[in-house]
Amino acid sequence: MSNNSILVVGGGFAGITAALEAAEVGHEVYLVETNPYLGGRVAQLNQYFPKLCPPSCGLEIQFQRIKNLKVKTFTMCEVESVTGTPGAFDVKIKQRPRFVNPNCTMCGECEKAATTSVKSEFDFGLVDRKVAYSTHLFAFPQRYVIDADACAPGEMDAIKAACPYNAVDPDDAGNTFDLQVGSIIWATGWKPYDMAKLTNLGAGKLKNVVSNMQFERLAAPNGPTGGQILRPSDGRAPKRIAFVQCAGSRDENHLNYCSYICCMASLKHVTYIREKLPEAQVVVYYIDLRTPGRYDNFMQKVAADDKLSLVKGKVAKIVECECKSPILTVEDAVTGIKGEERFDLVVLATGMQPSCAGSKLPVELAVDDDGFIIGGADMGVYAAGCAKLPLDVMKTAQTGTGAALKAIQNVVGR
Amino acid sequence: MAEKLGVYICSGCDIGKALDMAPLMEAVTKGKLAGSCPVVKQNAVLCSPEAVAEIEADIKAQGLDGVVVCACSPRVKWDIFQFGKTVQVERVNLREQCVWSFREDAKVPGLLPLMAKDYIKMGVMKLSKSRIPAPEVPETFKTIMVLGGGMTGLTAALEAAKLGRDVVLVERAATLGGKAATMYKTFPMSHPYLKAEDTGIDQLIAEVTGNPKIKVLTSAELHSLEGAPGLYSATINAGGEQKFDIGAVVLATGWVPGDTTFLAPMGYGSIKNVVTAAEFEAMAKTGAIVRPSDGKAPASVAFLTDVSLCTKGASPDSVEVCAPPEPLPTPAPEGEPEVVAYPDKENAKHLAYSSELTSLVALKQAGYVREKLGDALAFVLYDHMMVPGINERYYKAAQDDAGIMLSKATITKVTEDADGGVIVAAKDTLLGADVEIKADLVVLPTAIVPVTAHEPTMNLVYRQGPGFPDLELFDGFVDSNYICFPYETRRTGVYAAGCVRQPMTMATAKEDAAGAVLKAVQCIGSANRGVAVHPRSGDVSFPVFNFQRCTQCKRCTEECPFGALDDDEKGTPKPNPTRCRRCGTCMGACPERVISFDNYNVDQIGSMIKEVYVPDDMVAGGPRVIVLVCENDAYPALDMAAFRGKGWSPFVRFVPVRCLGSVNAIWVADAVSKGVDGVIMLGCKYGPDYQCHFVKGSELCSRRKTNIAESLGRLGVEAERVEQYEVSIDEYDKVPAIIERFMTEVITKFGPNPFKGY
Q1: Which CATH superfamily includes the segment(s) A6-96+174-189+355-412?
Q2: Is B153:B147 a contact under the CB 8 Å cutoff?
């Protein structure tokens, strides 16, 4: 018996787009996401290039559409197995316990009652969060999460006792359920390349060397510093900042492709710096500045900044001095001059790696050596977004829309 | 109209701690709408299953047709407070925008109960003036018209046919295939992204022409497109005139090579052996790559991708797009055909915008040199090797070819040598600071210029004109200004794909075609259900016109951001509901208040504002300020501010609006005449990087605001009392300061509204 429903795996921008575009045609759509919230990577960004507008704006519209079009969303879920055939899949979903039921009103009493703190995943470890937490303002769904594994003995009970709405459920054991669908869209997105693997660039151990995604959190008004750009080591405002492009990307030993967004992202970061630290000097070390299409306008505008130097050059090494300031060994590719430069803060433009790289997929999709999905259409599974290729947000939305069409064709044509 | 309302007040989430419930309930039971509110109750946790069950029981027992939920923001618990299609729900935001954000004023303490009463009365009034819309559902045409028979258009036609749709494919040329058919090869379209490959266009053409669902018209042009999504009539010139019933359109007319005069600074036109990439491609396609000067095969070919010599002086700032709309052309005198000039949008920047394709084409054509010219050498001189993403692998493959020399270079001069060779002078190279490279043939980039830079293309029979408005913003590309929404369109029902939208590779164009087809199908389906498309997806409301009072002032027809309104000879607006996006800009524009939505209208919001208690004595009772809040961005920002423990003056009252474009001047005038001391409009950013989801709403509001302020000035009310502020959704930390500044710099400074007490 064929089925008109569509499952979207991954609730980032590609998945949300695919889900909504299919739902707006009238299909029943299930959207499953591993995080406790929808929005994926873009929820962690401060602004989009080149408009410098907040991602929460577009997400707000998408969440309204989710409400109006009655898309069925599930957070904290993984796909366990996929059986059946195109048009009649049976998908087993495993939902991890949230320990907070829909009674939650976001009043925050649980967070006050919690005593243990751990590193915030949402803020890439720049700050701690409580074991009862909400990842960020605008989190959708608006509901707390309890990290039971990290709770101290008795802490869960104290949290439960503090909740005025009987929303804390210490016995939550999670859930396993089956979905019958006709098509599947795979939109599991990307993760930032692990800085620990960049041994010559400090291996993620130098305090004042942050990743570009950490820098987004530093600049975000709902981030750990309330939007102030400060050195993690001492909380001081940096005066000299360097960007190291292609940190992992375009390198056969790490990521054998260009991550598409990092040049534009770093130029965007220069605008954050200019807004918040008008006097700061910035150097961007790049191989090529990849600003395709009409992004050229943005590049021209940012490049006009007289406190910005764009240097075609390679950063061979980063160490830190006693005051924790990073020292870069760089070679200017045009002049051939090698030297050392000291900065207060260094941002590594780490690339994007497919989230599923290195892990076994619950459905046998062909992937390339880097983990990007290169097949699936013949089996009724359609890849979208950065699970398929490194892309920017607009192109991600395009692929999400295109994948929705393919998924619909697959269920309608039967 | 909702006539039997249940009013439920929640005392959870600190509301009950801050407020006494009994007087709030009395505000309803003893208020002027008491007769319409048979049920008024309070509950400790209104979102609990028990409380919701109680509401449902009341609806059944009392026959309620409306429920006013006085609790948290409508952004949360939306799924809990839904009671079926026949019961309207209004949410009064007591939690975030009243209790949590309340700040005592030292001079006028204890205002919270009054504020809560205001909001509850406003909510009851709003719902009592709301009807459930019953849209007329047209029987729509389902056929999709695809304009353009190149790679994108052919793919779109096939994708639509695979969905079972009938397709009319219109191609201007005598044959299908577009630019792809002129190419020898294209760069890689799929894994492993290493080798140039056949475009596959011949097979695609065969599939399209063999598909019974697709009607192909070649040597054909769209003469006019009349009507609205789901109900279009397309007149196509293909030998003779033919008419087709069309549901929606995919615009895939692609690009034309840029004007080569922009390449003159690099020697094109003056040096014989300097050709464009398009010309080089044509040679490769025919099989003979030769020098134009002597017809001999070149021993060396240099591909230059740095176009800075040509783009020097071109400003990154796009032309002014926020200027007021041009006055409409006066109709030509009878008998003379009306000629509307279409300003050409091509400029030198198109060369820069084509950078990604320029780099990929240079790599590909360097490969042709290696493939077809034996030992010939290929140089690729680039400023930035613009191969973002996966195509890095193709670049790597070229780097591994010893016969292809790649270097960064800034081209400083291109000159002709005595023997017909071309000397390229460059600086900042990887081969030395300043170098000269001599090549037998030099290939310059071909700019991708969208067809729409030169002509309106759509030939829409719309009052606002035949093409897309404000394309200057995108230098002629029919692109979306929304990063999140690549298929957003100013002309509902027409979805652009391929190089008419952005310069893109064939692999991307194919995907883009699929996306645009889905949007077209979606639009027809939504029209057929009487609902709006994005961003108010699924909205069943629509503007209703009371033509008796219309004075044919044409403001609504001119200002609709989507060109939804045509008009007759007299100027009476002619609505096209399936073009409409339900933003209410027409409602805001109308000075006679003839336009309304069943569930959102001028009387309703005006009546809400009148529910705000305004003390006669500003010193004793404090001033009052009405804040009209865009519900898309500013409203969530207020909620978030409250979540972060921010607060503001107890003298402001928020009134959510669909878009600032829907704000009618009468609301401001009424508020002021009632004694309100100031009016703030909080909406989205406007200008070239506009964030308004309805494109023009916040910008139009700011223009109308100037007029409103002037009229107030004539009445002796300070113009400063009406102000608009741009607030992004993430500017929650700035909102309190904006309100505070208005309260001190305007209200404290000017004192009470002179109309107060009249």
Answers
A1: FAD/NAD(P)-binding domain (3.50.50.60)
A2: yes
